[in-house]
Amino acid sequence: MYNNLKIAALGGLQEVGKNCYIIEKNDDLIIIDCGVKFLNNNNLEDGTISNFSYLQENQKKIKGLFITHAHEDHIGGIPYLLQLIPHIPIYGSEFSISLLKQKLGSRTKSRTIIFRDESVVRTREFRVNFFRVTHSIPGSFGVIVESLADNLRIATTGDFKFDWTEIGEKTDLAKLADYGKRGIDLLLSESTNSEIPGSTPSEAKVIRRLESIITEATGRVIITSFASNVYRLKKVIEIAKKTQKKIALLGSSLLKMMKAIHKASLWPIDSSVFLQSSAISKTPKNKLIIFCTGSQGEEKAVLSRLAHQNYPGWKVETDDVIILTSSPIMDNRFNVEMISNKLFALGAKIYENSKEDLLHASGHACQEDLKLMLKLINPTYLMPIHGDFRMLKNHSYLAQELGIPTSNIFVCQNGEVIEGNNKKFFLTEKKILTQPNYVFNNRLVLSEELDNNLILRKKMSLGGVMLIILFYQPDLKKLTDLPHIFTYGFINMEKHRNLITSWKNKIQEWVEREPNWKKSIRDYAETELLRDWKMEKPYIHCLIEE
Predict the structure, then answer these.
(1) Which of 197, 397, 430, 503 is positioned for an S-S bond with 417, CB 3.0–4.6 A?
(2) Whole-angstrom Cα distance, residue 509 to residue 504?
(3) For residues 349 and 346, what is the distance between their CA atoms, to the nearest angstrom?
(4) Distances in Å between the alpha carbon of 297 and those of 47, 195, 203, 363, 411?
(5) Digit-coded pLDDT (tens) for 286-334
(6) How would you classify residue 316: left for phi > 0, otherwise alpha for psi between -120 and 50, otherwise beta?
(7) Can you list the alpha helix ranges (DSSP code H) found in 410-476?
(8) pTM over 0.70
């Protein structure tokens, strides 16, 4: 059997989040990343994940899921995929696997395999290699997939930047250059910062500014950042030791990160610098750094609770210095500004990231970094990934500047299929179903179910709710009492007492003469009781107690 090599995205194209890419050849299929896309607080659902129906249909082909790094937009969908396909082998760096295991708990049946820089994974059709990249979380890698029968090489960068300072792991330039000489046929490269000129600022600039603010502070210093930015946390710990301050970590995600750091033996942790949260109020204010969660304005995170003055044990005071060392993502800006205003009103001094006062360095490649990656790998074809349409398109313009023909660049949508053979790639007319599914209260919700819920909620918001409760005695085939009717957001029960009593009598008479009343009581209430109701009709719910 011989089929063309196939590449497609189940998520991550023309959006920021839920990255999930597949490479397929004959009876072998590998997955690269499986993330979640978070939504703002105005949405019913918590986030969206890829549609896994294609993977379910082809689950016997799946040879492995490869994690580029452990950010939620790359691993957040894995627990939900494993609910549907439990036995997928999962490959990742030691730090990524440590965080994933915390997320999955002890119930998972999947096998996890740690890869390192020199690791090679072989299947019948593929040989998979890895190259280390610099990103804002340890254990970040790119993936190179070789299709053995076609002699084709595909590289995906994962998320990356170039930072030549001592902070963080370094991109393996030698390996990239070597593969560039040997030939990469198709590059899948991230596009998040493709609209930003220049190179991504170094984390070292951020750390120097943080040390300056912490040293000059006369009161408590409260720092919030992405919990996954452990390099920043490491440097703040070093600053605390240097300035003879103690540090308290607040937020469950931060504690999980510390556990993963210890598990992966990233660096030795000096426990003497840390305080328990219960000791905060007893520690001199000028000797205290609090590192907490809530950089994106999350409602239940520590910073939000401090802003609303409902964090147990202590409150924000006038001399406190609060440093927001991140930039709001997408729809989170309003929440972050609201919390910042509340903290400012409490008397705290607020430092926020800006071009003039750099307190956050992105983990993503800006234009010059993207160009450098293209020059190092020197691909024949490019498929920009991980970004909105304008980001993908802008990335394609950068590639054209470096000499890659427009015909060799694929700006795709989720579900579109690229195929390759004879050292050529082309966009097909095939389409994989990618209608996203949803996550709500840590539960997988299919799009059809969510649509039904949204229709129901819309009906209730416009017409209210009418609840009918019936007590029925089967042996006598009659109700033991008049029906009970309650209304919410529909009509005032006190003012319309006579109308509701007439409805109760009509329901009782109808039940006693209608043999299949249980199946049709909602229809009867809507078509008969509310026949003359001219406004939006309520959602009708019936409870029957025998």
Answers:
(1) 430
(2) 9
(3) 9
(4) 16, 25, 23, 20, 33
(5) 999 999 988 888 888 889 998 998 888 788 888 899 999 888 776 678 8
(6) beta
(7) 447-463
(8) yes
